[in-house]
Amino acid sequence: MTVPIAIIGTGIAGLSAAQALHAAGHSVHLFDKSHGSGGRMSTKRSDAGALDMGAQYFTARDRRFVEVVQQWQAQGYVAEWTPQLYNYRYGQLSLSPDEQVRWVGNPRMSAITRAMRGDLPVTFSCRITEVFRGVQHWSLQDAEGVTHGPFSHVIIATPAPQATTLLAAAPKLAGVAAGVLMEPTWAVALAFDTPLETPMEGCFVQDNPLDWLARNRSKPGRASTPDTWVLHASSAWSKKHLDLPKEAVIEALHGAFAELLGCAMPAPAFTLAHRWLYARPATAHEWGTLSDSDLGVYVCGDWCLSGRVEGAWLSGQEAARRLLEHLD
Ligand code: FAD
Ligand code: NAI
Questions:
Q1: Domain containing residue 143
Q2: Is 121 domain-assigned?
């Protein structure tokens, strides 16, 4: 019997590692506490259509990631997004076009992680609470008290605070992960029956409760949805209002949006709020992955690199590479 490699987390980092290991002929088994894959690239299905509440778009700067994004594009689940971009600073709204190529999942962000997952074995709705080593192999315990295993190696592909609690068997790695601060983001979606009268499709915002806003239907593959907008609060505002009820968050960010557009805004026909507790690392790192190869434990995720989709994918590749290197 081949003993599989356990991967905790089916965000893009965990799936990137899983794909690389599977391609190298190893069997893997993934776990996620959510009912679906994608993590911060997941898409919320709602009465107003599919809403990308987390990652909005991504850029590709590293040659390896550029190549894989081109393959995803050829397969149809990634497309280029060319929004009419604005910038809002000191109460001034201005057009802010640039040459940057930006990518989105097609027809929703989660199409990417769904395709990466393919037929890989995953146990969903399974929150791992403990990772421990027996005489020869690793086992995982979940929140229901069920033990999973045996596994030859473990890859932890979760945000840093969640990784820290799973790293009791590797205290050095736990110490590094514990030092990574991850900041929250409140996300709100608003849908309007009558489209808002603005050419704006995306806006970078400074010195404001808001940090970013996007017109969902300007993204490829989303044309038929109503006029839905996704608003992201800044880290500072999100931290300050971490425990605000959702209705109050929606009201505050809706108000900030109306002020930014400088118009009387209709009441939205649909609203949704989501709090991302561990949205982004406070600073970027250059670790690639954290590993203890002798133990057989590897850690990856966006926080090991740039705190972006690209960084998360690269980190998963790096974890897989380190693991394979040690087997040689
Ligand atoms: P995640 O996607 O967080 O995956 C971790 C997975 O682990 C999750 O599915 C979680 O459920 C699971 N998990 C955690 N703990 C456990 C446990 N104990 N047991 C089992 N499963 C567990 N990036 C960009 O490049 N461009 C953007 O525009 C952009 N915008 C963003 C906007 C927001 C609001 C947020 C939140 C993020 C944004 N990002 C953006 C960042 C980007 O989404 C992340 O960098 C990337 O998706 C992280 O992937 P990951 O695999 O490292 O982690
Ligand atoms: P990018 O190159 O488009 O943006 C990087 C940053 O440059 C932007 O945040 C913005 O400040 C600035 N910028 C870029 N183009 C601009 C323009 N035309 N006008 C004005 N400012 C502009 O994309 P990159 O480097 O891939 O970054 C990803 C994006 O994801 C960033 O905007 C980042 O803030 C966002 N993000 C948000 C998270 C959250 O929790 N809200 C988490 C992680 C990333």
A1: 5-44+113-179+287-327
A2: yes
Q: Give a yes or no: residue 50 inside a domain.
A: no
> What pTM did the predictor assign?
0.98
Total domains, the chain: 2
232 and 260 in one domain? yes
Assess whether 257 and 268 both reside in one domain. yes
pLDDT of residue 1: 67
Residue 27 maps to which CATH number? 3.50.50.60
> Which of the ligands is closest to the CA of residue 30?
1
Q: Which residue pairs from 114-120 have beta carbons closer than 8 angstroms and sit at least 24 positions apart in sequence? A: 114/37, 114/38, 114/77, 115/72, 115/75, 115/77, 116/12, 116/15, 116/16, 116/18, 116/19, 116/37, 117/10, 117/15, 117/18, 117/30, 117/37, 120/15, 120/18, 120/19, 120/22, 120/28, 120/30
Residues touching ligand 2 (Cβ under 6 Å) are 58-59, 85, 87, 96, 98, 100, 185, 204, 211, 232, 279-280, 307-308
Is residue 51 a part of any domain in this protein?
A: no
Shortest-distance Cα residue to atom 12 of ligand 2: 204
Q: State if residue 167 touches ligand 1 by the CB under 6 angstroms criterion.
A: no
Inside any domain, residue 311: yes
Please check whether residues 226 and 314 belong to one and the same domain: no
Q: How far is the CA of 306 from the centre of ligand 2 (A)?
A: 12
Ligand 1 binding pocket includes 33 (Cβ within 6 Å):
yes
* Predicted pLDDT at 135: 87
Please list the ranges in the chain whose pLDDT falls under 50: none
